[in-house]
Amino acid sequence: MTNLQSLKIAYIGGGSKGWAKSLMNDLALESRISGTVALYDINYEAAKRNAQIGNRISNHEEAKSNWKYEAVTTMEEALSNSDFVIISILPGTFEEMASDVHTPEKYGVYQSVGDTVGPGGLVRALRTIPMFVEIAQAIKRHAPKAWVINYTNPMSLCTRTLYEVFPEIKAFGCCHEVFETQNLLAEVVKEFLDKEVQHRSDIKVNVLGINHFTWINKASYQNNDLMPYYKQFVEKYDETGFEKEEGEWKNSVFSSCNKVKFDLYKKYSLIAAAGDRHLAEFMPPTYLKNPETVADWKFHLTHVDFRKKDLKEKVNHNEALIEGRRELTLVHSSEEGVNIILALLGLEDLVTNVNYPNKGQIEGLPLGTIVETNALFKYDSVQPVFAGKLPLDIHNMVSRHVINQESILKASLTKDKQLAFNTFVNEPLLATISREDAEEMFNEMLENTKSYLAGWDI
Description:
By secondary structure, the protein is of the alpha/beta class.
């Protein structure tokens, strides 16, 4: 029987400037579990700073639990005797990310995120897969029975790599994109049923697809079918888009007016359950033709310079917390990591969306590939919820990306540059450029990330 007051969580990427603090807050505000969080990061100093912040949070007067945070110098030290492993890493630096996102722009190819699909997503995957091979091998050696929660993108490929290397691993990937769609459906309830939804989880949805290209074919609230109301909602707002406060989308690069989501509903009659920035990248460049087109669809290109500025602000904020120049406040995040941990410990059951190997929960997609559906979390168990089959037109689009992901995984593991390139040119975002330009782009992007591609012919 696991001692709930002496748990061990290994955090791979424990120098995280943002998400780590959310986890620390959520752990501090949960009274039923306590223990140790071992923070491992290739930037040991960043992990040490997070340990200081975590211990301050744990000692806060509003904290309901007792967690000890410690920075460690090796992955083995972090993983040994751990009950849970959290993976949240940046694969490479912002310089490599800048190449992922902005090198394609020289060839007329624009990306709004560049971390999942498209040219940037695939090159990021080539950089990330070897890291996850190493992580999976370490988990197999030092924490084979631990539950592993991945937050790193490209989500599907990272999680898939863990299973490729260590088939018995107990791993899954978590993403909050579906949560925002539930929040949007709460606005549908407010408008058409005149009711206030207390929490987004009160909106019941059937989720099926792959990460960042997930779909909802059933949605309800208090036994009210929301699909007909969503159709009316789209008809009302498809031209203008929808946001709670007019003009709000302009204030954050992560915000949109849901116009891409609405357009996909008009074309395919299902709710696309991710943000516009992600959805646009899975399609031909309809929404990403150029920056002007993106602005017309009321979402954003996320420039890496913004991420660099945001990182600097987070570093400054964290330093102020460590030095006591900034007041520490405990606030629940919107993430479900701690709730999932509670469920796996048997303290409560939970149904939520998760990225997990396909065991038949989505009909028609290859078994073993990573799909996103709901799953039931209970004591030491993840049970995917049967989601059914995607309509053929959506299935065709999703399948293309599933096969591309499987191909890029094989290319990475075998260092097969030709297979990697042939997969690269099969991305829908490259539909409008020549194979010659695509090859030039590919070689330039590989050159910019070659320090992470040991053994490749570059």
